[in-house]
Amino acid sequence: MNIIVCVRRAPVTDARIKPGADGRNYDPAGVNYDISEYDKFALEAGIALKEKNPGSKVTAVILGVKDSAKELRTCIATGCDAGVLLISDKEHDAFATASALAAKIKTLPHDLVLFGHISVDNQSSAVGPMTAELLGIGCATVVTGLSVEGGVAHVEREIEGGKREKLEVRLPCALTCQKGLNKPRSASMKGIMAAKNTKLDEGPAAVPANLINVLKMEPPAPRPAGKIVGEGPDAARKLVELLRNEAKVI
Amino acid sequence: MSNVLVFVEAKDGKASKAGLQALGAGAALAASLGGKCIALLAGNGLDAEAATLGAYGASRTLLASGEAFSKHSPDAMARLIANQAQAQGAAVVLASATSVGKDCMPRAAAMMKCGLASDIVELRAEGGKPVAVRPVFAGKARVTVQASGALFATLRPNVFATPARGGGSAPVEAVKVAFSLADLKAVVKEIVSGAAGKLDVAEAEIVCSGGRGMKDPAGEGKQNWANLEKLAATIGAAVGASRAVVDAGWRPHGEQVGQTGKTVSPKLYIAVAISGAIQHLAGMSGSKVIVAVNKDAQAPIFKVADYGIVGSAEDVLPALIEAFAAALKG
Ligand SMILES: Cc1cc2nc3c(=O)[nH]c(=O)nc-3n(C[C@H](O)[C@H](O)[C@H](O)COP(=O)(O)OP(=O)(O)OC[C@H]3O[C@@H](n4cnc5c(N)ncnc54)[C@H](O)[C@@H]3O)c2cc1C
Q1: Residue B30: which residues within 8 A CB-CB, separation 6 or more?
Q2: pLDDT confidence tier of residue B212, bands split at 50, 70 and 90
Q3: Helical segments of chain A, H only
Q4: At what angle do helices A94-105 and A127-135 cross, to 10 degrees?
């Protein structure tokens, strides 16, 4: 099986995010990066499937700045066989990102194309299904259960209210992965050494213009200062009264 | 033409609340763009419901039915939305940011080679063009966006008002999609239900979340979690959790609130025994009113809380249940 895992390099989740000088992007000063959280479930799913199906190959693909080679090597150290770096310095919207990914994936054999179900920064939940559409393959989103047999992915996806949908998706297909699917492993020492010497497939990305244009980025509206209603159980009645008469939410 | 097409999600034979909210927002936008608001419903047995959508702002209602729509199918829904976006000359295409909308709108937008603004919280016209606002980084920042070409957008549930039923009426037209079951690449086989009637944190108007300080529900924390569920039942809330709780296996991951869980914006968020780590705050700071209960007066959660009680979950939860029950009865 040929498995592609699309990975995003994103600011770590404890980064403080401030709009930058251009007022349209965040200020990158002092921000550290990592593989976007949900992409780790996609990586684990790909590597676990390879282990179950000998002869399979897992290729990690990152669209991002040249420095993303670091995250790509982490993917290889964790168990991917190859890394593709589509280099671009710009911020792209979901459709532009999907277009660049699909253009590359078309040139690679692919039975399964895995994504995180949402990125921790842009949070569009759209790159996976858009890439699937551009590749003309099926897609299931927010996947929390997966097995592949006889050319079909048997998938469980999370829907509202703790319910799950069971789907069958014909291969080749794209899946976007959610927490609960698996427990991502860490890179092994041996993997880290091997990743250092792996040659990456690097080149400039072919990305079309954005269709969603950011006019401005702002910090969230500041919250008015709150108050401590009191201490211990005696404060409960007072709180409920404030919620009813002052905040008017109950 | 500045028509607005709204895919109104149906649930149990009715237009869903989130679907009506999208319709209300679409009708308001169409009015300021000088276009029409067209509702699109998909599913079987929805004829009566389709006829009511004029009362919520639709000027026409399109109804697609047939075997491809007997269950949620992202392929069929995406094709339907894209076809109708084209047929109606839509400048804006809206749906709810739910498991259905988030599944099919990206595909529909890609079919039309259009951009998608996901999970938007504001929608308006500026200089005759639609403009949307969406949180990024789980609410650490927000961006105002405009599309080149038609704007596809999903609307975060419970942020836009649910329109009141008015006196309007709108004609219903049947629409067809050339789609057979054999064309579907992904097929839903069954829906496995969780706890019956469980409210989802992302949809609920009130969320009560518990953190690590609630302790292990299989041990010391048993009474705390029973109390949190009782509180939730008393005020009609969904139960949420911090990541520490989910990672410990105390609650299902679908309940996790935060940057790597769900972003919520209910009218009331009650955080019990949650410290307020940056990733948790990111996911719930958009709530209208925040209440925090924590035994540590210095806990960062108090910085974002409108109302705080310094005290232990053990002491405060029973008192809260009693106080809410008394207030709601009276
Ligand atoms: C990549 C990454 C992503 C993350 N994403 C998320 C996310 O999406 N959501 C999220 O929530 N976290 C997330 N986290 C984790 C986050 O950093 C915190 O570790 C987590 O939120 C802490 O959970 P907590 O507040 O329940 O626990 P703690 O921080 O341990 O806080 C427990 C609180 O309970 C109080 N307490 C203790 N006993 C009692 C009692 N008896 N009564 C009342 N109060 C009591 C304590 O004073 C303390 O404030 C993420 C972390 C990483 C690294």
Answers
A1: B2, B3, B4, B36, B37, B59, B92
A2: very high
A3: 39-52, 69-78, 94-105, 127-135, 189-197, 235-245
A4: 40
Separation of alpha carbons B247 and B102, rounded Å? 25
What domains, with CATH codes, occur in chain B? Answer: 3-183 (3.40.50.620), 206-329 (3.40.50.1220)
In order of their start, the domains of chain A are 2-204 (3.40.50.620), 221-250 (no CATH)
Question: Is B36 close to ligand 1, i.e. is its CB under 6 Å away?
Answer: no
Pick from B72, B259, B322: CB nearest A13: B259
Tokens linked to A197: 């010497």
pLDDT at B224: 98
| Interval B264-306: pLDDT, tens | 999 999 999 999 999 999 999 999 999 999 999 999 999 999 9
Does B110 sit within 8 Å of A133, measured CB to CB?
A: yes
CA B326 to chain centre: 30
Beta carbons of A92 and A63 less than 8 angstroms apart: yes
CB of B210 closer than 6 angstroms to any ligand 1 atom: no
Report which of B75, B42, B48 is spatially closest to residue B175, judged by C-alpha positions. Answer: B42
Summary count for chain B: helices (H), strands (E): 9, 18
The pLDDT of residue B198:
80
Task: Give chain A's mean pLDDT.
Answer: 97
Compute the distance between CA of residue B283 and CA of residue B241 in angstroms, rounded to an integer. 11
A207 min Cα distance to partner chain B (Å): 14
Question: For residue B195, is pLDDT > 70?
Answer: no
State yes or no: pLDDT of B1 exceeds 70: no
Q: What is the pLDDT of residue A224?
A: 87
Counting atoms of ligand 1 from 1, which one is nearest the CA of B257?
9
Q: Could you tell me which residues come within 8 angstroms of residue A197 by beta carbon, excluding any fewer than 6 positions away?
A: none
Per-residue pLDDT tens over the stretch B89-130: 999 999 999 999 999 999 999 999 999 999 999 999 999 999
| Amino acid at position B109, single letter | A
> Which of A235-239, B66-70, B288-292 is predicted with the least confidence, judged by mean pLDDT?
B66-70
Is A216 close to B144, i.e. CB distance below 8 A?
A: yes
Q: Chains A, B: CB contacts under 8 A, how many?
A: 298
